[in-house]
Each structure stands twice: as C-alpha cells, then as structure tokens.
C-alpha cells in the first residue's frame, strides 16, 4: 500500500495488507455512456425513471443483442474501473460507522463489479438506450442479461427487432 492510499483511509477503515491483484480476465463488451462525469453527479443507485443512458457495444458483440427487445428490463453488469480494491472494512458515510465490504453495495470492492436493473427504452443497432444506471460516463460494460424476474426461456421466434 502506498502512503497516498493510507492517507485516503477514513477513521476505522482497514485495508488488506496482502498484495492486491489489479488484473482482470474479464473482457469488456462495450462502453456505457451516461450524463455523469464525476462521482458526485452519480446517484448511489440508478432510478428506472432516470436519464437516458447508452450501452454502446463493440461491433463484434452487436449480434449478441438478437432478441433483446423482447425484454422491458435488463440486468447490466459493469466494471467500476476507478475504484480502489483493497478495503476490507469501510466507512461509506465517514460518520464513524464501520461495515464490511461484502455487507455494502459500495463501488470499492476486490472485484469492482456494479449491477443495475435497467429499463430498455429502445435499440439503435449496436446501442441500447436504457434508464436506471448510476455509473460514470465511459464505464466499461461487462455483460447484459434479461432481468432475472422477467426471464422465461422461450422458443426462438423471428420478429423485426431480432436482427
Ligand atoms: N448499482 C451498482 C450496484 O449496486 O452494484 C453500483 C452501486 S455504487 C454504490 C454506485 C456509485 O459508484 C456511484 O454513485 C459512484 O459514486 C460510483 N461509481 C460510478 N461509476 C464508477 C466508476 N466507473 N468507477 C468507480 N466508481 C464509480
């Protein structure tokens, strides 16, 4: 841990003293565009009536959107790339209360994966317009799935939105 990291700790917070790997064998599938250009602007959790955001997929993953417009709600997974990854105990509100990392939805975690349920507004080719995100503009996109509760396996069928 560097001196700068130690200086960043709040009262009562504890960082692991083991080496932390910053490698990730995750392949990003695109980029999320949001109106939030600083962490202060981000909501703590997205709202389904929040601003339109864009899930911009790499062209090679665009065919993987086939069938997506059957769903009103999606789960979106993203890599909170600006997070530190070494905190075991955290004081999210700086008020002296200390909580374990795994008892929080803080972006600070060993593998900084964020998950949001979003509302699918429309598809524009390799881009999905959605509401419900809470991440910074240009956050890397990891995965998109039909929202758990609305997903029922269906027989494949063809429709205009399937391309
Ligand atoms: N909804 C997700 C979840 O529950 O897994 C993320 C919740 S987390 C509390 C959302 C916060 O992470 C935002 O308010 C912002 O402070 C921070 N954040 C957003 N994008 C980030 C990024 N790319 N890197 C680091 N922190 C980010």
Give the ligands present.
Answer: S-adenosylmethionine
CATH superfamily of the domain at 44-84 and 104-149: YaeB-like
Rg: 18 Å
Largest sheet: 6 strands, antiparallel, barrel
Q: Output the number of helix runs.
A: 1
Give me the strand/helix succession. Answer: HEEEEEEEEE
Question: Average pLDDT across residues?
Answer: 90
| Helix proportion | under 10%
Termini separation comes to: 49 Å
Instruction: Find the structural class using helix and strand composition.
Output: mainly beta
Uncertain stretches of 5 or more adjacent residues: none
CATH class of the domain at 44-84 and 104-149: Mainly Beta
* CATH fold-level assignment of the domain at 44-84 and 104-149: Elongation Factor Tu (Ef-tu), domain 3
Can you name the CATH architecture of the domain at 44-84 and 104-149?
A: Beta Barrel
Shape summary: elongated
Tally of DSSP β-strands: 9
Sheet with the most strands: spatial strand order: 2-3-8-7-4-9
Approximately what portion of the residues adopt beta-strand conformation? 25-35%
């Amino acid at each position: 841990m560097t001196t700068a990291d130690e200086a960043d700790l709040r009262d009562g917070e504890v960082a692991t003293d083991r080496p932390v790997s910053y490698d990730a064998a995750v392949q990003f599938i695109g980029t999320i565009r949001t109106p939030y250009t600083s962490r202060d602007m981000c909501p703590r959790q997205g709202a389904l009536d929040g601003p339109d955001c864009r899930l911009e997929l790499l062209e090679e993953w665009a065919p993987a959107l086939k069938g997506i417009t059957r769903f009103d709600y999606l789960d979106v997974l993203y890599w909170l790339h600006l997070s530190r990854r070494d905190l075991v105990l955290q004081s999210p509100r700086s008020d002296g209360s200390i909580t374990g990392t795994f008892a929080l939805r803080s972006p600070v975690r060993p593998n900084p994966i964020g998950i949001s349920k979003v509302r699918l507004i429309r598809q524009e080719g390799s881009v999905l317009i959605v509401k419900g995100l809470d991440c910074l503009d240009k956050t890397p996109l990891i995965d998109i799935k039909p929202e758990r509760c609305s997903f029922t396996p269906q027989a494949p069928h063809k429709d205009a939105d399937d391309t």
